[in-house]
Amino acid sequence: MLGPTAHVDTFARDNLPPDADQPDFLLDGFDYPDVLNAGFELTDAMVAKGFGDKTALVGNGRVRTYKELSDWTNRLAHVLVEDMGVQPGNRVMVRSANNPAMVACWLAATKVGAVVVNTMPMLRAGELRKYVEMAEIGFALCDMRLMDEMEACADACAGLKLLAFDGTSNHDAALDRLALEKPVTFEAVATGRDDVALLGFTSGSTGEPKATMHFHRDLMIIADGYAKEVLGVTPDDVFVGSPPLAFTFGLGGLAVFPLRFGATATLLEQATPPNMIEIIEKYKATVCFTAPTAYRLMLRAMDDGADLSSLRAAVSAGETLPQPVYDDWMEMTGKPMLDGIGATELLHIFISNRFDDHRPACTGKPVTGYEAKVLAEDGSEAPCGVVGRLAVRGPTGCRYLKGDRQKGYVADGWNITGGSFMQDEG
């Protein structure tokens, strides 16, 4: 039974999959009030907790405190409502590389009760158009450096309102200029914890995009679950990484996790290993999210004298973690590399190694709140040592927009992730 909604535009809730097709949601231990706005929780609420002068975001040569981020997002929120006409429940697309302005736009749109669709810079007009049409997106915020494809998309999508922002540190685009005239306070829309806050598009194995639907509570759950239990995030942490914010993995690891705990996120538009190494050394980054290939290059850099000793957590994702990389990292740093698995459908990581419980060539154990099993071909639970399909359930789960292909991912209350796994005796 869903809680109250603040959405005037009910498209998202109207297009949730039927209850019978949704997975079981195991919400014990994840208790949130009926009214919950993730954008507010990650900004104004953090200022109220005393983090106002703490650095929230670093990027494009500028440092922004939590108070500055709150003021910035509140000004932007006023523009969305007063100048663009965004109403709670409307879909708002954000198109940008990883930079503080993208985070600010996402947070502002979330504050006004919109359903946000974050997108990659590499998408072309035709791909953007598919998203717009599927999610009936009415508004788009785009980094002015990426406007060509966005404008081509808007030309083909009648009624799409488009506004440019400056993703550099100059803040000199239409959205930025409008925001300068706005107050630094904004009363966030009283969204329900079960209101859709985010649509995460994924092509999966079919090549055709599917939109996964995530509630405000889901954004809190991945922080209060994985980030708290596995990573042990504190306000002293500094995050760095390569996943795009347009992917839920990047949005969690480089925005939700640090902002939930008063930590700092460093954002790189070009997250090459050399650039990440420079950031780690300069800002003494402590938590890194990137792929094994990047960690290989970091190992070579350490051999050549790079000082990455500040890193306490190296999270590996995006590809299988080879045992030699794991072993070399352990030998070089004395700290484990945390391998794990997640999915856009479940928003983030649901199985992971731990600092005190880790092995090479092993994905780990379920994050608190999640259950996992391996299914045999007939759908029964496979015995240990037998390869089968991974099934997961927990506090987050698959909800495809309009129920498209929902039954192909969810069976008997379990999310069938499609990966081939084997459970050992450990």
Ordered list of secondary-structure elements with their pairings:
Elements (H helix, E strand, L loop, with lengths): L10 H4 L23 H4 L2 H8 L3 E5 L2 E4 H19 L6 E5 L4 H12 L3 E5 L5 H11 L3 E5 L3 H10 L4 E5 L8 H7 L15 E7 L7 E6 H16 L6 E4 L6 H13 L3 E4 L5 H11 L3 E4 L1 H12 L9 E4 L6 H11 L3 E6 L6 E4 L12 E2 L4 E5 L12 E6 L16 E2 L2 E8 L5
Parallel strand pairs: 1-10, 3-4, 3-5, 5-6, 9-10, 9-11, 11-12, 12-13
Antiparallel strand pairs: 1-2, 7-8, 13-14, 14-15, 16-17, 17-19, 18-19
Q: Name the poorly predicted regions.
A: none
Helix-strand category: alpha/beta
Helix content: 25-40%
Strand elements, count: 19
Query: What's the tally of helices?
Result: 13
Strand content: 15-25%
The geometry reads as globular
Tell me the strand order in the biggest sheet: 2-1-10-9-11-12-13-14-15
Radius of gyration equals: 21 Å
Distance between the termini: 37 Å
Rounded mean pLDDT is: 95
Give a short account of the largest sheet. 9 strands, mixed
